[in-house]
Design goal:
333 residues, mainly alpha, 2 domains, three-stranded antiparallel beta sheet, two-stranded antiparallel ribbon, 53% helix, 8% strand, globular
Length: 333
């Protein structure tokens, strides 16, 4: 059984668990404060009762047990995301039929809605799609291409076929830029992604994992937090994680000077990202012109395909759309 299939079966079993009885706000707070002390929680919830309260509220809105949200829902830049396994379980809980097949070169996911059994929704994601999107350099894509391709196909077909079953969960963490493990769950450690627990590395090869948030909280002043922030940035952690580190630094002695330095670094990084995005957007519009489309028509086509506007797109999505438009134009420059 594949990693995705096993995780999907486990998540579907979890969905069958009854939701907790509705609690008062005071009871929820006490529950979360007590639960946050557990060292077995995912890292983003340890010692963070407010984060746990968010998960409990989200689970209640979905009619799920809180553990489903705690282990399966991850908030990236304020947007709830879920693993492909949980998305699959939500689709099947709604009564729709989901089929997924593939290998390390291509994955195809199909959904047959319970209210429209004569039509099959299908999404396909290939290794060439991943290459055009710049994904193959990621460690998890090198190690688990089949699982990653299936995850992309599942989330794409679910968005297209039954968005109402997802309750606002449209993407996996990996699609929004998080560093993930082979099951699609975010990890925030220096260097390579966490080793597969099924393949224990030799003791001499096991590198210590860094909890940058814990280091930042222990830091004596803002300058020390700044050093942790630099290390985390060099390790390639997502932007929302860097933002959390910056927030910790603002409460430390000497924060005013360090905050100014950090703000300048963030602005510079965002400027680089904005410049790259603007260049990719302009190139996409040039390709649209070659395909005899106006900018407005190109925007509509993009939104229909990706579910958001080009202004909200990643550079990889803009590059992919440009190549598709050039193909439609017969390869014209």
């Amino acid at each position: 059984m594949t990693v995705v299939a096993l995780a999907d079966r486990q998540s579907h079993q979890h969905l069958a668990a009854p939701a907790l009885p509705r609690m008062s706000v005071e009871s929820k707070l006490d529950y979360c404060k007590a639960f946050a002390a557990s060292g077995l929680l995912p890292r983003q919830f340890r010692g963070q009762p407010a984060n746990l309260l968010y998960a409990v509220e989200y689970a209640e809105s979905l009619g799920l047990h809180p553990m489903v949200a705690i282990t399966g829902v991850h908030v990236i830049e304020g947007k709830p995301t879920a693993s492909a396994a949980l998305i699959s379980a939500l689709v099947r809980r709604a009564g729709h039929r989901l089929r997924i097949k593939g290998d390390a070169t291509c994955a195809v996911a199909q959904i047959i809605r319970t209210d429209d059994p004569d039509w099959t929704f299908e999404a396909r994601f290939t290794i060439d799609d991943a290459r055009r999107a710049g994904l193959l350099g990621k460690d998890v894509w090198k190690k688990y291409p089949a699982a990653m391709l299936k995850a992309r196909a599942i989330s794409a077909v679910a968005r297209d076929a039954c968005e109402e079953a997802l309750f606002g969960i449209h993407y996996t963490p990996e699609e929004l830029g998080a560093v993930v493990d082979q099951e699609g769950n975010p990890v925030y450690i220096a260097g390579e992604i966490q080793q597969d627990t099924k393949e224990e590395p030799p003791a001499s090869a096991a590198a210590p994992q860094r909890d940058f948030l814990a280091e930042a909280r222990r830091a004596s002043d803002a300058a020390a937090v700044r050093a942790v922030w630099e290390d985390a940035k060099g390790a390639g952690v997502p932007q929302h994680y860097l933002n959390q580190l910056a927030a910790i630094g603002r409460d430390k002695p000497g924060a005013r000077v360090a905050e100014q330095q950090l703000a300048e670094a963030v602005v510079e990084e965002h400027q680089d990202q904005d410049d790259e995005h603007a260049a990719a957007l302009a190139a996409m519009y040039d390709a649209a012109c070659a395909a005899e489309l106006s900018n407005e028509e190109a925007d509509e086509a993009f939104a229909a395909h990706y579910g958001h506007t080009p202004a909200e797109a990643t550079v990889a999505e803009l590059v992919e759309q440009r190549e598709d438009l050039l193909d439609a134009a017969g390869g014209a420059a």
